[in-house]
Amino acid sequence: MPSMTYSRARELTERLEERLTDSIASDLTATRRAVLGGLGLAGGAALAGVGRADGHDAAAAGHDDDSHGNFGAVGEYRDLDFDPHDYLTRFNTGRGESDNVPQDVYEEDGRTVREFTLTAVDTTVTIAPGIEFSAWAYNGQVPGPTLRAVEGDLIRVHFENLGRHAHTIHPHLRNLDPAMDGVPTNGPGVLDTGESYTYEWIAQPAGCHFYHCHSLPLKEHIHRGLYGAIIVDPDPERVAEHPADYCDFHPSQITDDLRADLVAEAETRNHESDANDDVNEMVMVMNGFDTNFDGDNEVYAVNTRAFAYGVGETDGEGNWQAGETKRPIQVDRTRRQRVYLINTIEFDPINSFHTHSQFFDYYDHGTTLYPTHPTVDTIMQCQAQRGIIELDYSTHDPGLYMFHAHQSEFAELGWMSFFEVI
Amino acid sequence: MSQPDGGTTMHRTDRPLGLPRWVAAVLPLVLLALIVGGFFVATPFASLDTGGEPLPDVTVTHTTLTDDETVVLHVTNNGPDPVTISQVLVDDAYWNFDVRGAGGDATLAPLESARVVLPYHWNPGWDLEFALVLSDGATVHHTLVAPSESPGLTTDLLVTMVVIGLFVGVIPVALGMLWFPFLQSMSDRWLHAILAFSAGILVFLAIDAGFEAFELGEQVPGAFEGPALVALGILGSLLAVQSVSAWRQGRADGGDARAQSGLWIAYLVALGIGLHNLAEGLAIGSSFALGRVSLGAFLVIGFMLHNVTEGPAVVAPLAHGERPPLTHFLGLGVLAGAPVILGGWLGSLAYSPTLGALFLAVGVGAILQVVWELRGMIGRRGRAGTALNLVTFLTGLIVMYVTDLFVAL
Hints:
The structure holds two protein chains of two kinds.
Chain A: H1 2-23, H2 32-47, H3 49-60, H4 84-88, E1 91-92, E2 103-108, E3 111-128, E4 131-138, E5 144-150, E6 154-161, E7 170-171, E8 196-202, E9 207-212, H5 218-223, E10 227-233, H6 236-241, H7 256-269, E11 279-289, E12 299-302, E13 313-314, E14 320-321, E15 329-331, E16 336-343, E17 350-355, E18 360-364, E19 373-376, E20 378-382, E21 386-391, E22 399-404, H8 408-412, E23 416-421
Parallel strand pairs in A: 1-5, 3-6, 5-10, 11-16, 15-23
Antiparallel strand pairs in A: 2-3, 3-4, 6-8, 7-9, 9-10, 11-12, 13-14, 16-21, 17-20, 17-22, 18-19, 18-21, 22-23
Helix pairs in contact in A: 1-2
Chain B: H1 21-42, E1 58-67, E2 70-77, E3 83-90, E4 94-95, E5 98-100, E6 107-108, E7 113-119, E8 128-134, E9 139-144, H2 155-177, H3 180-184, H4 188-217, H5 226-253, H6 257-260, H7 262-289, H8 293-308, H9 310-315, H10 326-337, H11 339-349, H12 353-381, H13 387-408
Antiparallel strand pairs in B: 1-2, 2-7, 3-4, 3-6, 3-8, 5-7, 8-9
Transmembrane segments (chain B): 21-46, 157-183, 190-207, 227-247, 259-276, 282-305, 326-347, 353-372, 384-403
Protein name (chain B): Metal transporter
Keywords (chain B): Membrane, Transmembrane, Transmembrane helix
């Protein structure tokens, strides 16, 4: 249902765009771009009908419960090039999952190679309704494309820099070759505009990892959007052979049952295993944007867009209406939910993740198959820290369950979300 | 008729270059128009345009709090490009809002003003931080200090302002004027000292109001050039009053007895003080309009004490000759004091920093002219720079400073 309304919104916007650009095509002083830009606002207002007009209707109908006002970004997203709902579950394993990421998967010397092409470009991304941020982005999207491999695979990345500044790709992996570290001093160093290089990394260790640009000034190159997720799935065979690598136990403590548990867990994590199909997996990159260069973020989000997983309009009594582009994440309560969580925030030392009415298991860095923090409802991550969160809503009533950064400031500046359990 | 430098002289009735006079008058303008038009057409600086975008320049001039659940930000776009208010932060949180008065959208054309209406349940006395986030992410910050509800336009408010105006303006000045019989009994020497004292009072008022005008000028939307507006107000009113005064001087030299009397100067002093008091009224009225009632109450008490000293300043120029009819005293008192009422109305109904700064500046200019006039008055019958005059001038400054503390406290 939400995807239906979503495409409806897109069609409406495009129709409005065409009509307006056609109607003033003869006006030589207005470029098409300017018209589209201006229309963004008009279209946003039109689409906001769901969110805002309803608010007014409610007030007109005598409900004054929103007279105190509601926090949250006003209006809907008009730029639909990037869809944070789609990003959640879009994993690139070499099988062509994303149109904008050329990729392949093949065998080479007995090893699986997953090959991707990443291109650094200068672009603008919409970070809140009506607010454009001048970003530097891998393949034009922030966060960059999610790359996914199995432990031991070779990840081969053809990187081309089409941006105005020099960039690199630095992987947060156990990388044995300094030339492949993606820093200014090693290997190819920074790649200037037009230069390209092919990085090769072994996918290890299993876990939730990421990549980012390591050019200087570092803060800016990361904050502008040059980062993305790398997920390394555990190899069940290796888990069976080296179980002590995936838990806190000493090898002498590993029983057959424990070994079997670890392998089973590894299979749920491995995208090539059938057991993985039972789990709903999501990537959430916690990020922020300093729009006015004061060293403080004006927008906080998971996956770039403020309140993207929020509720469009609510009366505070459980009656809510999703916006066209701002809407909760629908989850099937019969399935296990797994979140690959990465903190790429700049200008704040830590970020956090908190679930309402729910406790979860947390695997710091995702490198273990036993939780490092079982049964918690809040975890914090410093910059570049990440982990895996596993949620079970099977006993919850259907409905909306909030999750957000428990820095209240971050929540009110955009990092505020909902699961809609159905 | 040739001259050494090669030019020629001609009679005023001659036709310059043989052209009719009106052509000679219009010709430079036509040529200027052609040149300016040529610049527009030829765009000779196009090669210097680096494509840099001008920074957005938006001012929140002031806020009104119509009830305890609404905050209205009054916003002006000063920049050369339209700006769009995409989001609004209240105390670092995204909040819903409505832009009104900008043609139905959130985009402000250059020099356009609008109201950003926020449904927000604020707490009286608790400061609020606002940030308007523009479409390119630029932020416009505004802090609302110690908010309280704005009274809005009511008959009650208008009547209250009249009462306040009487107590702040007319009554203290009238009380001060009761020193008149005492002033009459003074020698020239002491009278001049009193006039110097008045000048001290006025100079302090000019300094005080001048600073305030420039301070307020900073809140004026950038496009209106606050400081330049203040300078224009000061110089403009100074020269306007001075030209009236010079006209009066011309009449006096021509033998007009009325123009020679001290009454004329007394009226000028009253006018200068009146303009100053208009600004006081604005300050009181706007503090009420901005919901800062406690500040307004302090201003009332402070100005009341302050204005008692303005009475003798008004009547001192009359002490010398015969006592004019009592109606003149009434007129002087009203001219000096009643503008507080007008200022109060203006301040509470149509407050804007631009108007406030301009009124203050006009008051400063008028006061400076009066000081000029007082100096001339003393100089005609004695010497301005005597030790006694300088000391009383200084005393005037100090007295004003001290009574000013009542306003500041």
